[in-house]
Protein 1
Amino acid sequence: MEDRTERGRTQENGRSDGAAGKQRSSPCASLKMFLVALSFAYFAKALSGSYMKSTITQLERRFDIPSYLIGVIDGSFEIGNLLVIAFVSYFGAKLHRPKIIAVGCVLMSIGTFIIALPHFIIGRYEFETSARRIVNSTLNVSPCAVGSSADLTQGGCEGESNLSMWIYVLLGNVLRGIGETPVQPLGISYIDDFTTEENAALYVGCVQTISVVGPVFGYLLGSLCAKIYVDIGFVKMETITITPADARWVGAWWLGYLIAGVITLLSAIPFWFLPRSLPMSGPRGPEKCTPEQKSFMKHKYPADEHASFTEMAKDFFPTLRTLLGHPVYLTYLCVTIIQLNSLIGMVTYKPKYIEQHFRQSASKANFLMGVINIPAVALGMFSGGLLMKRLKLNIMGAARFAFGTSLIGYVLSLFFFAMSCENAKVAGVTLSYNSVDRISYDKHPVFTACNSDCFCSASDWDPVCGENGITYVSPCLAGCTDSAGSGKNTVFSNCSCVGVAGNFTASTGQCPHKDDCDRMFPYFLALSVITSFIISLGGTPGYMLLIRCIKPQLKSLALGFHTLATRTLAGIPAPIYFGAIIDSTCLKWGQKRCGGIGACRIYNTTSYRIAYLGLTLSLRTISFIICIPGFILLSRQLKKEEENAINKALANGGTELEALRKEEFIISNSDQMSDNSTDRETRL
């Protein structure tokens, strides 16, 4: 009977312990769920953000806009952040953080769908071609038009207003920016509040690594969509005369935004089921957490559950003033703003640089960015977090590590200047019709004796490759009089500018001329991977420096204001002025149907390289100069903190010593009193 009773008690205790165990394990289980949910949200936002970068050239061509305007569209994401981030970071830290992140993910998804909307409103894409301007053309048109020049300019302007549909892309990107706002500051501060200091760096490193994996899929999605023609399913592909390598090709840019929107919407779901905050201490503490986690959670501060909105608003500006009065934080802010100007400008136009400089298709450029470059960054960021934990780097150690990796990457980046490709040979643009052997960037006339009998348009861009290996701006300007075949297989004959006899042919599209580029391109990719890995090694230590150099109470606001400042002063302007500088290297602009400049068709690759790389490295040089006073200020702060800690310890030690003396005095007095009483008893 006793055995049964004991067994029953054991079972009951087992059940109660199991139930308590489940209850107790919930904080750590919730933390793990939050880590998974935040990683997926980071993945979704990174995927849609990188997909936007991969569609830059597609959007330029589809809406016939220059690079600086694409920079405005790209920067509109940061404008969305700017509108709400300071308030979301400050008030969000005091409210239900997971649910605010969930609302943000839903807004991001809606914004992504709005970006794709113009495709379903705008008409079919009509690329620039000389053939379409010839009136009463037949299947085998004569490229050399005879008659008045007025015949060449006929063609309706209907649908031109549709090109302003790029404003929908801009507005959708603004909404994406608003939605993305709470994910980083609230997510990182939530992790840091409920993990040990030792594990915080590793967890942040893991989340940021996942956020770098997102762009791998973003660029791969961009590569896939760039291969598919924009109006796939609505046009006969055999009638399309251009290929993905053509400067007029537009891929199915809208398709990727629909996919990214669905993924972002799914990422919002887990956050609705997460708690506002996790228990810090007490008997209901997490059983499955390690002793270190339990002890650390006791020192963490919970969100202010009962603070009123008025009280929070009243404290906002004094708190912000305290934050901006922190010299180390302010210096760190300046350095990261300048470095991010360099980084954002470089990453935004890197696929375009690969396309233009090394003559790769948009699809291949995006594929290489996704498969080779981005994984190197992910590996670097994860390795940086791991090294920080293994080496147990303090604040100064993290700062030195981040600076060292950035400096090594900077030195290696100088070698990019030596990796050059010869410009494409285009008659009338980079070559003179009279001297087709030497490339020069002087103004060359496109009209010459060989095409004087044809009424050609100087503004058209419909390149053909002559048998002599020279590209001509259009079949008309090549002096071609006949054509045979259709679509990509069209062949132009009797091209008087191609050969002296006038019986040479030309085919659609630019001439390849890729020998020198093909030799140089693998070296460019290898160096790009190495520099990306080394620079990203310092990413996580640099980020932890931001978290650790300020008081815990200011952490959420510091992260939020850092994001606000970097996006306002780097994310918005960098794509615009990088785009404007790239535009200045354009040699041949496309023309809109009703006049006006469209997208650039061919660049001066030497000027492009110097402008793009020169601007990137100049900004990083300035950031290194600012780092010098930054290290001095950080050293002073750490020294001051150490002195304060010693003084506090001495003060505490003095108080303890005084308490001990009092205790000894009381004990000695009580001993004396007991001795006296014993003496009295003896006498009696």
Protein 2
Amino acid sequence: MSNSSSAKRQTGARRFLSGVVEGFYGRPWTMEQRTELFNREQQWGLNTYLYAPKDDYKHRMYWRDLYSAEEAKQLMALISAAQQHNVDFIYAISPGLDITFSSTKEVAALKRKLDQVKEFGCRSFSLLFDDIEPEMCAADKQAFSSFAHAQVAVTNEVFQHLGEPDTFLFCPTDYCASFCTPNVSQSSYLLTVGEMLLPGIDILWTGPKVVSHKISVESIEEVSSVLRRPPVIWDNIHANDYDPQRLLLGPYKDRPTELIPKLRGVLTNPNCEFYPNFVAIHTLATWCKATANGEPSDVDMGDEEQDPCYSPHKALTLALTDWLQEFMRTDQPGGPCRPPARLKKESSDEEPMQTDMGECSYVPGPGENPLYTAEPLTLDDLRLLSDLFYLPYEHGTTARTMLQELDWLKNNGCTAAETDKTEEWCSRAQRFDDMCEAVVQMFNRLSNAPNRSILYDLYNYICDIKSGVGLARAYVKTLGGQGRPSAQLMSDDPEPWGFRGGLSGEFQMEVQRIFRQMQGAGEGKVPPMTQPPLICDSLSAGDISPCSQYALILEDEIGVCGYALALTDAKPAAAKIQRAISDSVFEEFPSLITVQLLPRVTDPSPAKHMIGRLLSSIRSSGSRGVFCELRQSDQRMLDFYNKLGSFKLIQVAGLPRDILAMATSL
């Protein structure tokens, strides 16, 4: 692809920044992977790379320390590689954890560190003050009128010390709308930044939330007015560092191309795993070029966004088509020197993959098994993979269909059995089974793809989804009376792939045990199966997994005696049980919490401490409020929430008669 259109696009007299920020928490990418990224950026017309890996010690935790001779050599080579591919290498440093802004010694250390990187050949820089506590030390309180004043003063001084580089980015502590108090237009922090930050410094912004579902033109116009400049979007739409069970392979979407002339740039902060980011970066590049020729693109009329210049569906197809070629490459580490000819046949879905890439001189004799020939990966396989691991706020089409079919089959299973399995139930059960089989075959073909580097990044995720689909498949067959219940579902001594492993799995099983124990304790007057479901039931039962930071366990001298779980976005869980809750409720209280304590817990203090920690974590995610659902008959838990003091009863239209809602703002 030509890179001229994006590289030459201007914002005033300055080019539009487009590219990638390596800004996630977790293992940083290797130098070789970054060099490969620069090649892709040049090929696709992107022009920027922001170096900001949170777990690079000398970027954040030990920001004062200079780079060693060996580290300097690597960084110089990396900066040179970026320049050779016409990519602007922006070096970011994050001193906000412990810097004393008023200390001349501290500011000198910051300048010394950036001077060293400048000697490496770097010409673009960034100061990041994200994800830190908004409190000043005593010395800073005497020197500055506010936290924003302190940050701006140091940033301006460093910017001028470096000779006012053409590209210099500032990341504010309040980097999204949900962090602003009371709102964007009245935020004293942002108003100070906009007024005092030198005009040559650009400002990073993630949108309405840390991980923004949609970014509207109106929201960007509002923040641009406050900041007195167009922002650079640090886009977390494909970030997965907050949830180790997620991988995001959907297209760049829900950002209208009308934003482009109103922004200074867009940088995607994608998945921690390097190779699966092909789709995220490829589709961003397509989006950035969408209006380059000033002509509308041929957009499907059925496209959700109705953007006249960009179709996420078509952008995804282009990306997956190119990615398929990458899967076929044989020159990657771990891959064969030629396309694989023969592969050992897997004896079961659960066994680890086994491959044999060597020459095979064996010729089967009469009556012997033929050699297994690997089926090549297809574009449909990659479409399915993308659908299963789509975007943070939505599943792909096939994944949505599978969930809907499973829900229908579950809800209609008993009725169908009683009427000798209606034709519709059997037809839909077969359709669901076919979709499950497609997932298994996708897994097999991915496992046999020549490019092992991509496979190794995907393998844990595709193993997990294959296992989950296998359990659902067995469950539906049991509902349909096709043989005895699956050993995976019913065995008291299952194979280890039949349950989630490690400490996380132990916690999950303990939570499910407490949930079943509470259901069996008879705290409600109505048998559990006849009561209307709570939104949190699927969370407690393990059907929906909370992120690790939103799952806490309470223990006493006997063992686990309680838990607190949360979802930062409760909408999907509500939709799962067809609970109709108005958008106004979710706007004020987007998150869901559920707490259960065994009757033997008589001292509420540890439980209150557990709730406090959980609410603090939810607040840090950018949530405005949290709610819970309780049964009127569960007097013990109603009393518990009332004694917390912060939760109040709220009116929610459409709740079943036996269910109450309580909520608190964060």
